[in-house]
Amino acid sequence: MNTPPSPSGAERTDGASVRLGALVPLTRPGWVEAGRHLLAGLDLAVREVNDAGGIDGRPLELVVRDTAADPERAAAAVDELAGLGVAAVAGEYHSVVARAAAARADALGVPFLCSSAVLDALTEEPTEWVARVAPAQSHGWRIYADFLLGAGRRRIAVATQPSVYWASGTRVLRDHLAPRGGTVVELDTNALTPDALCDALVDHGVTALLLLVGHPEPAVPIVRAVRGDRRLAQILIGAPAGQPEFAEWGAALGEDGAGIPFLRYLPERLGPLGERVGKELRERLGEAPSFVAFEGWDTLAVLAAVLRSHGTDRAAVAGSWPRVAVEGTRGPIRFSRTPGISVRQWAWAPTQVVDRDPAEPDRFRILHSG
After folding, report:
1. What is the pTM for the complete model shown?
2. Which among 35, 88, 189, 295 is placed 20 to 30 Å from 284, CA to CA?
3. Dist. CA 205–CA 29, nearest whole Å
4. Residue 303 Cα distances to 98, 101, 282, 307, angstroms
5. Collapsing DSSP states into helix, strand and coil, what is residue 313?
6. Which residue in 132, 130, 136, 70 sits closest to 104, CA to CA?
7. 174, 184 Cβ separation under 8 angstroms
8. Which whole number is the average pLDDT over 219-230?
């Protein structure tokens, strides 16, 4: 497995460092832009820890492995990282990949702090080895469903691809909307061309289309087709999984990519810590940091605090999850047992529904908070 160089320059081989594994999608078909932001947050926090003296005088070393959105590759990476003696594993963006990593970490007894993946069932059974910074899908997507209801959108179509993650999201939406007078129609993008999808939207009389599909394919062609169909001028296009968060979305779609609400996990205003970290991340990335970059920083900040207070023994790290109390960029982070969630969970990171302003697509508008 190829190993990208550690951007922090912290990789050492003299045995003096405290090693942490990092799982990040850095090549296709992984969402590379999300991976770049996640790694920027992780790496910035490592540099700050080391600038402040490391962990009891030992430098923190981030050992990065590219998952490329491949669950098997992620599981193999956990095996490798465990063999390299990491104290814990951090990261991952894709939910299905994080699930494979979490299962392997649980089996091996390696602490895994998940940064960005939201699938509720991150592990099949409750585990003490895995904790998560990102909100669970059921939490965020219920907030998104409330936004749809508040906007008067009750006849919902979901354009889907086969995936545990998309199926789970569809179930959350249906379960939340149905008792409140909403309906959800599933449209399989593997069976429908974008033009045929437009016809189906007209036939079903839907008022909103949610993109539960990959980016750029087939999300970009679908958006273009719907935007170009005059019959669908009043339909709301939504993307709860957050595809429009990244600059790549705007570059691919321009004005067509604006006005598409999505979930992001940021407060309305960042506090002093968030402002400082955000400024550093902007300089590293050369663009505004996404919420994923903040998730990366917060993940590493939690692990550094745990390592300082509980040492580097893996069982001690995992045993510390219930006692975590760390000031993150987006608020105080604590982990708890949450009904229906199999891992220790921060409940919850700030959650917003936002879109890109059609009048100024580089600017985000907050439409709803939960």
Report:
1. 0.94
2. 88
3. 34
4. 17, 17, 23, 6
5. coil
6. 130
7. yes
8. 98
